[in-house]
Amino acid sequence: MTSSTVATAVDGGLRPIRLRLALTLVGYGTLALLACVLAPLVGSTSISLSRVFDRSIPFADNVDAQIFFLARLPRVLAGATVGAMLASAGVVLQALLRNPLATPFTLGVSSGAALGAVLAITGGATAGLGPLSPVPLSSLAVACLVSAIIYALASRPGRPMSTNVLLLAGVTLNAFISALILLVQYFADFAETYRMLRWLMGDLDVGGFLPIVTVLPLFVVACVLFATLPSSLNLLSVGTETATTRGVSVARTQRLAFVSTALATSAAVTVAGPIGFVGIVVPHLVRLMTGVDHRIVLPASALFGAAFLVGCDLVARTVLAPVELPVGVVTAIIGGPFFLWLLVRRA
Amino acid sequence: MVLHLQHVSFEYVAENGFSIRDVSLTVERGSLTGLLGPNGCGKTTLLKLMAGVLRPGQGTITFAGGVLDDIPRRALARHIAVVPQETHPAFDYRVIEMVLMGRHPHLGPFALEGPGDLAIAHDALRATGTAHLASRSYMSLSGGEKQRVVIASALAQQPDVLLLDEPTASLDLAYQLEVAALLARLNHERGVTIVVATHDLNLAASICRTLVLVRGGRVLAQGATETVLNGDTIRQLYDVDADVRFHDRSGHLTVVPIGRIP
Lengths: 347, 262
What we know:
The complex is a heterodimer of chains A (347) and B (262).
Chain A: H1 3-12, H2 17-38, H3 49-52, H4 63-96, H5 109-122, H6 134-154, H7 163-186, H8 190-201, H9 210-227, H10 230-238, H11 240-245, H12 250-272, H13 278-290, H14 294-318, H15 327-346
Chain B: E1 3-11, E2 19-27, E3 32-36, H1 43-51, E4 58-63, E5 66-67, H2 73-77, E6 80-83, H3 95-100, H4 115-127, H5 143-155, E7 161-165, H6 173-190, E8 193-197, H7 201-207, E9 210-215, E10 218-224, H8 225-228, H9 231-238, E11 240-247, E12 252-260
Parallel strand pairs in B: 3-8, 3-9, 6-7, 7-8
Antiparallel strand pairs in B: 1-2, 1-4, 4-5, 9-10, 11-12
């Protein structure tokens, strides 16, 4: 190998992957960190950072510290984790299904979570499990059940999953579960219906750190699984047979991709309700900036997704202050036109 | 002997009856073998069986003395590469990224390609005459350019065996000749064992030293090109009357189809 050969290869294509990955982690990591640091300082009520960390004032008397630590910081952390999970799940599903328009909600897992939530609300469930209160518990349980059903439908013994069945089963279950949700709403009273609607709009006002800590193990497992996938996703997105002949265990990669996205989506929806469009807007924006290599796109989307949702929530909290909008409305207002633009661009 | 199929049969469960029936054939090391046969005769299925993408229902396939199914997927990909008839990525990768994917079996689970891998990828691009396309988006290329890039990606695997499924099917005459010359060069200069499934009898006659004729999932004939390729075998294979003659200027057999036999 000559130095000119390497130089031509680098010049003719892209910077070496190691450099690109390092730049991605530093650049998008800084963006996510800045969003998480700055967002708690901004809101409908002005707070003083020096007062927040002033230990001479008892916490019970320090309104600024209470706003910062009890209201805004958990909300920002919830936004960052949910944004990272939904964006990552979007990237993985788009490669798994070889469909750039797939979202974490395509498989019906979020609809399952929504059904679980509305059932818990209308049923007046009071029994939780450990730190999980009834609504998130029911939401998580039904999301897992729906994931298991779709997995069973698409699995074929000893062979790769059928991505067509995966996609069609997801779309069908989405429609079916949406009908069930309407049925439950039809029999609910006004107060329950209001609670359901608010939950279905997606909201990051989690009211403390406990909801995030509770689903943290699911996020961690999903992240570990995500980390094993990127180079295989590159090949999977080229085609399952190409992936096979390049040394990818397709069936195993598909299983890991499905399980990781199901876990990430279930946990994210359990924490914040179904916040739409993050899983499609973020991966495509990142691809426009970084190219399409999943070894770059996946970590970049996770970090950018965190910053994006924290930013959207900041808009939701401040644009009509003191009234707060559900963050799902903000992401939908941004994401809807973006999705249409994407469809037209692809056509 | 590199690849050896012994009494191999295969059936697609979900489809109606199409199968490979009791096929035995040997691909010698350093050979350039053509798989010929009409549409649906099982050429692509045979290639998939040789690549380990499909598992035989009956019989065994061995590679370099070991049973193909027992060789781990990543290890097998370091020895056998496949060029499909068409490649449609879901995302718009650059050419250099497509070629570097060929390095996947040589990298560890979390490893990223280094300068050595880049040099191999660039070498593969040069070998296929596509080095000037390295920074282009794959989707913006012409059919011929795409096919050569996919061949470059397969070469980046540094395989001992290259399996190609109708590599000239969508190419114009100039690109057909270019791909044919490339395969002959890879076989001659780099010692890559090549199996190519094709409908192009003249391409097969020009570069393949060995032919395997397949019809209805069975091997009709196999052997040296000069022995196997004649009017009788073409009639049996395609129900077509054809003249097969040695062409002085090209230096190989040529096939001129005359007409379909009723």
